[in-house]
Design goal:
- With 133 residues, this protein is of the alpha+beta class.
- The chain has one domain: Beta Polymerase, domain 2.
- It has 3 helices and 5 strands, in the order H-H-E-E-H-E-E-E.
- It has a 5-stranded mixed beta sheet with strand order 1-2-5-4-3.
- Strand 4 and strand 5 form a beta hairpin.
- The longest helix is centred in the N-terminal third of the chain and has 43 residues.
- The chain starts with a helix and ends with a strand.
């Protein structure tokens, strides 16, 4: 029993950092793809009348954007995602449109959920989003 306990503790200690890195990688790639898609849609200049793109439609023709990068910090247990954009136009409308678009897209991806309060989670980790322009 003691040997089994030692083996289990060793497995937990060794695999926890690997699982945390995998979580951060999934979050990073997901948010990077969604942010890039949002800029592509806005810059394309053609509106699509559907639920997913509706938050971006008021930006089409009024804003030009370039996705510059992403950083993910999970040192506090909560995942903080910072998305950096270069925006030519109203930055406040842009930020709120991007966040709403992310929330609509993220629910399609396995492992991500949104609470009734609008909070985003990946599995059991809360995600906060910051948009920098």
């Amino acid at each position: 029993m003691l040997i089994f306990g030692v083996i289990m503790v060793t497995i937990i200690v060794l695999f926890h950092p690997i699982l945390t890195n995998q979580r951060d990688t999934i979050v990073t790639s997901t948010f990077k793809e969604i942010a890039s898609d949002a800029c592509y849609y806005i810059n394309l200049g053609v509106k699509v009348e559907d639920y997913e793109h509706e938050p971006l439609n008021n930006l089409v023709g009024n804003v030009k954007c370039n996705f510059l990068g992403i950083s993910v910090d999970s040192t506090t247990g909560e995942i903080r995602v910072t998305l950096k954009f270069e925006v030519n136009g109203n930055a406040q409308d842009f930020a709120s449109g991007i966040i709403e678009y992310i929330k609509r897209r993220i629910t399609e991806i396995r492992g991500f959920t949104i609470t009734d309060k609008g909070e985003i989670f990946y599995r059991d980790s809360k995600i906060t989003i910051e948009i920098l322009t």
